[in-house]
Task: structure prediction
Amino acid sequence: MLTVETFDTLVQAASAMTPQSRYLGGGTLVMRGVNYGDQSFQRIVRVKDRSLREIRSEGGRIVIGAGATMANVMAASETAFLANVARQVGGPAVRNMATVGGNLFAEHPYGDFTTALLALDATVRLSDGSEQPIESFLSSRSSMRGLVASVSVPRPMGDEFRFRKVSRVKPKGVSVMSIAVWLPRQGGRISQARIAFGAMGATPLRAKSAEQALDGVNLDAQGIERALSVATTGLNPTDDSLASAWYRNEVAPVHLRRVLLGEESR
Amino acid sequence: MVKTPIRFTLNGSETALFVDGGANLLDTLRRGVGDLSPKYGCGQGTCGTCTVLIDGEPHLSCLTLAETAEGRSIETTNGLANGAELHPLQKAFMENFGAQCGYCTPGMLMAAKALLSKNPNPSREEIVEAISGNICRCTGYEPIIDAIMIAAGQLRGRVA
Result:
């Protein structure tokens, strides 16, 4: 039988977590487990603190509370550059519920928002105040202790940040893959690009070879050629009901090209 | 087993009851209160037939922990009609073949109501977006979209 434990603050909730506890954010992951008889947890822990939903500027970065929903991200002026990402998560009802913190733990093929956070080199802040880069967070998320309080991202300039979700059903379909790129430029050339793929591995993953191949090139068909040829190096897609790993690997460079060159999807 | 007391407003009426640990809002409405209008479809957030409005916004009641609805205002399809008079959305669905098997209908109606309360004059594209979380396995989407367009027109006429 399930027990629900409700706390006023995240710190209190974090100290009450046991291996049999699951933290409830928006409910779209945890309640799905409840409905399907998931026996891996007996306790649901939740927090009433509404400040977990806050989105604000802090220094040069934008801090997004773990409890902020996709609808909150779409509505906040600080996160206007992420509105297009949040809009592609689920339908309207899911977006009123699903949280940024929950998305960090969404299993394949979900986690489109986290893919964008990975491209933006987000920092994840835990309830004890410690911080870690999102990439190391994702590689250890299944064994993490503590609770996520917020994530912070830099504010990308102009069209430096781009996101595309590839799905078979429009406007709402599950990802065949999602692609997020951050392309800072110096004197017209790309410098220190970040490319993240969702649904191309157990967690969102960076395409580091492609990132390196973009360094110092112009953002045109010729400049990105080498990056496209190594686009899937380091990715690890699986077969699922939406697409085979083979198909995902074959089409990933095509979709990456469309994102980089701003071409319409077909 | 511990039961938790919760209170909320359901279609304008104060409602109070006890829920089991982990109970979702859909079970609470159907079994606890007896409002059978929201339906159980997939239980995982894919189909949308359990859609209810919480404080005016569409939510999936099967994925909502019942006790998080404490103090909030919930609307279901049961609250749409005014006595014997159907809501314009219900009438438009009925007259324009917006329901085939009917299983998705309560979710479609609530998603449409949420849309029209914010956007009284939606485009077809905006309607498609608003019901994108609601699956009709009879694939009768076109009549549903038509019905929402027609109801929107009637509701605008009412206000004017």
